Amino acid sequence: MSMIKLGKFDDAKKLLQRLHGTNDGVHILFKDLLAANEASKSAKGSEKQIMSHTHNRPYRLTAIALPLFQQLTGVNVMVLYAPYLFQIVGFQTSAALTYTAIFGAVNVAASIIGIISVSQGYRRFFLIAGGVQLFVGQIMLGILVWIKLGGSDVYDYLIIATSCICVSGFAWSWGPLGWIFLSSEDDMLLLYPLEGRSCC
Questions:
Q1: For the chain, which ranges sit under pLDDT 50?
Q2: 153 partner at 20 to 30 Å CA-CA among 52, 79, 86, 97?
Q3: DSSP helix/strand/coil, 192
């Protein structure tokens, strides 16, 4: 946008083509940027006024809520402190490390599935389905830790299974999608109106 404000239209168009890798859609985006530049010249008010418009509130809320809820799922804590958490629940050190390796393998596999599926579309469905899976998995895990079935093998397998349900639900949905929504141009066009994009 700054190149357009400075009148460097050819440079701006070349930069857009280089960023996109193709000419597809660059002309439309360039026209939108030119229109936004003209609108900003005639607009009265600051960025604060632009962001205070009521039609921008859902976009701002989404831009804040996605990364916030992504962190509040608690899966990052589960992944980072998995061996320690498994020891607190009652596993021996060697078993905790083994279960952490299984936990990590599920995380990697679900992340690969998430990366592939996100590029296919249906992002809203994946966010909702992953959120439901996370919710159910964390409720089940909380109940298991609360009732403490003891040191039986069934209890161990249930703890690992519910932990894997939680981490896989995060890895194939909220993990990648929380950042893709905020960085993908297609989603950014939906999240942020052109006049408020620089403010967000």
A1: 1
A2: 79
A3: coil
